[in-house]
Amino acid sequence: MRELTMRELAMRELTLRELTMRELAMRELAMRELIMKELVMREMTMKELAMRVLTWRELTMRELAMKELAMRELTNRELTMRELAMGDLAMRELAMRELAMRELVMRELAMRELTMRE
């Protein structure tokens, strides 16, 4: 009877150990699974952050490009306005020269006429 009891106790102990080992293994698997999920989540978060950073950089680059284009356009407009102003000044200068030439011609003609009368 005692022998059976010892065997029974031994069997029970083995069963308990086995259960404990299974439990530990299951817990370990569960922990590994949790760790893997966490790693996947972190990876996703890192990818998300990387995408956000890339998107932000892309937006910043687009903004910079747009600003540069706007500045170039303003510079081009400014140059065009300067050119127009210079052209306008040149036209005025030509008109003034023409007026001066006409005035000289008129004086010359008046002088000749006076000379002819005398």
Considering the chains and any ligands shown, give keywords for the structure.
1 helix; 118 residues; mainly alpha
Description:
It is a single chain. This protein is an all-alpha fold. It has one helix and no strands. It has one helix spanning 2-117.
Largest sheet: none
Protein structure class? mainly alpha
Tally the beta strands: 0
Compute the separation of the termini in Å: 171 Å
Strand content: under 5%
Count of separate DSSP helical elements: 1
Point out poorly predicted stretches.
Answer: none
Q: How would the global form be characterised? A: rod-shaped
SSE order, one letter for each helix or strand: H
Topology:
Layout: H1 2-117
Summarize the structure.
The chain is an all-alpha fold. Helices cover 98% and strands 0% of the residues.
